[in-house]
Design brief:
The complex is a heterodimer of chains A (about 140) and B (about 300). Chain A has about 140 residues and is of the alpha/beta class. Chain A has a single domain, classed as Rossmann fold, CATH 3.40.50. In chain A, strand 4, helix 4 and strand 5 form a beta-alpha-beta unit. Chain A is globular. In chain B, about 45% of the residues are buried. Chain B has 12 helices and no strands. Chain B is mainly α. Chain B has one domain. Classes of the chains: A alpha/beta (about 140), B mainly alpha (about 300). At the A-B interface, helix 1 of A face helix 3 and helix 9 of B.
Chain lengths: ~140, ~300
Amino acid sequence: MAIKDITRSLFVFHAALSPCNNCDIEILDALTPRYDLERFGIQLVGSVRHADVLLVTGIPNRKSIERFLRIYSQAPKPCLVVAVGTCPAGLGIFHDSYNVEKPFDQYVKVDAYIPGCPPKPEAIIAGIVKLIKVLRGEK
Amino acid sequence: MVQIGKILFYYLVFPGFLTLTSIALVFSWLDRKITARLQWRKGPPFFQPYYDLKKLFQKEIIIPENSPSPILFLLSPLLALISVSLAGTILAVSVVFPSQSLVGDIIVFLYFLVLPQVLVIVGALASVNPYASIGASRELKLILSYELPFLIIILGRLLSARSLNIATLLVSPPAGFISQILFILVGIIVVAAKSGIVPFDIAEAETELAGGIFIEYSGPLLALFKLSRMIMTIILILFTSTVIWPGNGLFAVIGKFLLISIILIIIRNTNPRLRIDQIMRFFWFTVSGLAILGFLLALKGL
């Protein structure tokens, strides 16, 4: 599989792990005509079977991580995981919460972290562009 | 041998599969670019539809675990693409080489045009997903809605041409001015419904059914379905701009093709999705009414 082909057309699936919804709103903002992610070939898809990228928002707690791992196993490989927001990137304010076992990147390999609470649409786009550059082997 | 080689060349290269695929990819780009410009965006690069398909062909195929028939699940996208490119070849051969066309090819063409939709339903039902089965039932209702006006306008053209041959239909003059306009109008609406673009995309319905009929399809199978949908759209536009709206000359055909494409793209971008009952009422009463009116006027020679 040439990973370069994936970078030209990223189909994004929005996987919410019990977020507070601020990151989801910023993701939706990033997909609006104002920021025009389609010029990078990025599209939002509704089914995980069509996905190339899982955009993860929210905290990986005991209930939600089970669901996420099921969704992840249903995605056709190769599939990238991008952690959007402080919660999946670190643990944020939930670092000592009773229902959080371990950080998100100890469950699955995360390809890009976009910190921020919530990150701005510009930050999300910058993160995706950095991910694309790394996958293509550019500086 | 030479005959078989010629048929294979027609089917696979020109004016068949390869040519249709390239036109379909360009049309898909045009569609997305005009959509983007209408929303004041920049839009995808020229090769974007090609990149999408190339990527999809390299992804994993997932077959649903409790599918009643994995073979049907796997075969229906492939057969859909084969039948749609056969239909396209029959039409395009009649347009490009009128002397090579068969007798009664319009009947074969119409059958091959229905087959992809039926195969989409079969594939959706083989993928045991509740959303897919809702999508399949909606697709079936859509077929029931648009086939009647489509067949009526084709009947109108057949009567004025007195022939079942596409090559004869291409050159036969229209019965009358008013009926011609009604036929083109009905034709454009039916093309929009048959290729599943926005006011009539109830079966796919990204926002409520999350892909509907295609929800369980991944990788190459999804690419085959997408490609057959794209080819279907351009075949139907070509059919409307040649058989239903006859007129000679290469430039006339290209002009009509572009005009109908742009009308379809603008319809797609300015309309919300309709409900099932709205679509069925619209097609059975308004569009079929217009088609029957056009048919009667064509009989009178108006």
